Amino acid sequence: xxxxxxxxxxxxxxxxxxxxxxxxxxxxxxxxxxxxxxxxEDEDDDGEFQLSKTVMxxxxxxxxxxxxxxxxxxxxxxxxxxxxxxLWQAFLDNVNPLTKxxxxxxxxxxxxxxxxxxxxxxxxxxxxxxxxxxxxVCSLSNTECEKVTGQTRSALLYRLxxxxxxxxxxxxxxxxxxxxxxxxxxxxxxxMYHRYDSHSLWxxxxxxLRIAQRMGLHRDGADLKLPPLETEIRRRLWWQILxxxxxxxxxxxx
Length: 254
Description:
single chain, about 250 residues, mainly alpha, about 55% helix, globular
């Protein structure tokens, strides 16, 4: 049984994950021609979102520009503890195996602490938690979501993705040097893969790539004499971001 990797350096700046990614995101590996939007009326089987040339999520720009008028009070957005733990398990089962950018044992300690005391989270940890919750919901069908959470997938996903977006802004993700924030942003991009149009997605994955370069992830940790675990986490996150960037570029027609 594989476990994902989450870790922190001496300043508390790092983390990483593992688990089985969403059947729903298996679509990521479809031909670009199948994923590129054709009309604004195309919907998925659940009728939840459209693959059109317009931005499917109207708040795509909020990540870069912020939107104080519509900012969320995140304290009320956290799942109740039992629901949060069930979503964590869904993440481990469905998401982690395809992303491989966290260290599950370390992440589990974070999750357990966060579900007990959601009001005492740092902005970085809060972004990380909401990214886990939203990606877990993305991996579930509507029937599974109702069974796990007692809520419809569309309603819960809308709420959690909005909370993740706000948490990333609160964590200052554009200027972050905290690896856990970059992990949260990368998981968010996975969650939004079919909710942003291809051009917006390519732009946002480019942001992840620039943040990673600024943090030095393109330089191998072994050459920098970093600890083995930290080195492996940096490698996994760097290559996952590169994969997202390449796929987004293909879908955008570049």
